[in-house]
Amino acid sequence: MTIEDIQAEIVDEFSMFDDWMQRYEYMIELGKSLPLIEEQYKTEDNIIKGCQSKVWVHAELEDDKLVFTADSDAIITKGIIAILIRAFSGQKPKDIIEADTDFIDEIGLKEHLSPTRANGLVSMIKQLKLYAVAYQTQLS
Amino acid sequence: MQDTALDIQTIRKDFPILSREVYGRPLVYLDNAATSQTPRQVLDVIVDYYSRYNANIHRGVHALSQEATDAYELARKKIQLHFNIGSTKEIIFTSGTTHSINLVANGFSSILKAGDEVLVSAMEHHSNIVPWQMLCERTGAILKVIPMSQDGELLMDNYRELLSGNTRLVFCNHVSNALGTINPIKEIIDEAHKVGAAVLVDGAQSAAHIRADLQELNVDFYTVSAHKMCGPTGIGILYGKEEWLQKLPPYQGGGEMIAEVTFEKTTYADLPHKFEAGTPNIAGGIAFGAAIDYLNNIGFDAIEAYENELLEYATASLLAIDGLKIYGTSKRKTSVISFNLEGIHPYDVGTILDKLGIAVRTGHHCAQPIMDFFGIPGTIRASFSFYNTKEEVDTLVAGVIKAREMLL
Question: DSSP per residue over B118-176, as a string?
Fold first, then answer.
């Protein structure tokens, strides 16, 4: 599936919920089911700055696709990063770089997009894209 | 509320913001330690200033300038009376506590020598740590820390041991922003004076709750931010004993702070203007005075009694929640409760509470050393003001229970 298809799928899933509480409960579930990053990658270097909670992201190239793993010490943050990883992991770096992130707004998480927001969703997206840029250079 | 002298429902009507909604729910504002809300009486003063007599002060010959100068200087007088300060010369208007502390730290750059010692309490806000670290880097002075107990109380025996003939300065907050502890500052000041050290007390967190008598405290420097006591942001004071303010060199150069300027030499204006370069926050200063009037009309005794009642009620209600731990259990506290739920990140709780319309602070509260001391990433902090109600405490408790259900 393309990034766009996955994002559409996520938007579809979230559209089933009537209120924020259900959306957050779902996000918390996603956070709990996020496959864990290997302990060796939970390093200071892999922490995304600008988050009130700690977020670690690790990226690895498998063939020509980028695979992300992540973790956070806060469960809602983990849910958010799980959504991002679902949308971007296993995709080509070039597609990740070019992908837009409007779907975040569509699933009702717009308030997390503010650059001053302490959870740093913006920083997370930026970090995933930075990894993509780095590996894109390596591929070409 | 029947069990208090204050008519909270009438008081709440003074604060327009308290009737707004957040995410379709009534706002429950419990982040008063970060900033307090502003009553209509103070807002009106700001609008009145800009509507009727906005003018630059201290230099104009025209009527508006004179009115603005009088109002601004009247505010200084109100501050003098409120904190029982000896002279208005000892009151420097600043942009707030951080500015005040930096002004003093900068001034001491030319006074401290290598090997001098500076003591700072273990429960300081970053703004009362970093300027002193910078000062120590510039001068070669040594920064030492007064430790605290698990309850969040300063260990006074250790403090006495740290004091010596080398101690030049002691810094301590009157009330801890992260824990709510009311520190024994009178004792801290008296002990420091015995070894000839000066004391700066950061009053940012106390000013809205406790009416400090600065002459009785015999403190050398005291700092206050208006926005923590129902005034606007961007204005505060540095109180300094006249002898100290005479000793410290000016902080910033500019207009207003000079007596005479030639290209060869400038002589500085008298206190307090020596430290007030440039056009000040005039509206802010006047509104600060109005905020002090507002609080005194309610009365600090009544405020303290009611906030203690809220604190006790909230502490008991929160402790009834499974797995809830309160940080900062000093016997003397202001109405601040820092807590965590076992196994849950404070940020998650704060996020759910926000969606329920409840404003609390989460994180390290700019006091990372305290969080390191307790070995936690941060806390959820609910801080109450005299305009909060027991019903709002109930809403908070229900919110925390809901958050726990969702997050565990």
Answer: EEEETT--GGGTHHHHHHHHHH--EEEEE-B-TTS-B-HHHHHHH--TTEEEEEEESB-
Count of residues for chain A? Answer: 140
Coil, helix or strand at residue B358: strand
In this complex, the residue of B348, B355, B378 whose CB is nearest that of residue A75 is B348
In B, which residues are within 8 Å of A21 by CB distance? 355, 406
Q: Are residues B338 and B258 in the same domain?
A: no
**CATH code of residue B159:** 3.40.640.10
Interface of A with B (CB under 8 A): 20-21, 24-25, 28, 52-54, 73-77, 118-119
ipTM of this complex prediction, to 2 decimal places: 0.85
Out of B296, B330, B346, a domain closes at B296
10 Å CB burial of residue B147 (0-12, 13-18, 19+) is: middle
**pLDDT (0 to 100) of residue A37:** 85
pTM: 0.91
Q: Which DSSP state fits B204?
A: T
**H helices of chain A, where?**
3-14, 20-33, 75-88, 93-98, 103-106, 121-139
Q: In one letter, which amino acid is A114?
A: S
Instruction: Give the C-alpha separation, B406 to B396, whole Å.
Output: 15
Q: Is the dihedral of CA A42, A43, A49, A53 positive or negative?
A: positive
Closest by Cα among B7, B312, B21, B330 to B179: B330
- B250 and B356 assigned to the same domain: no
pLDDT of residue B238: 98
* Average pLDDT, integer, range A4-30: 92
Which CATH number characterizes residue B315's domain? Answer: 3.90.1150.10
Q: Where are the beta strands (DSSP E) in B228-318?
A: 236-240, 258-261, 266-268
How far, in Å, are A3, A69, A131 from residue A36 at the CA level? 22, 7, 19
Domain A3-139 class? alpha beta
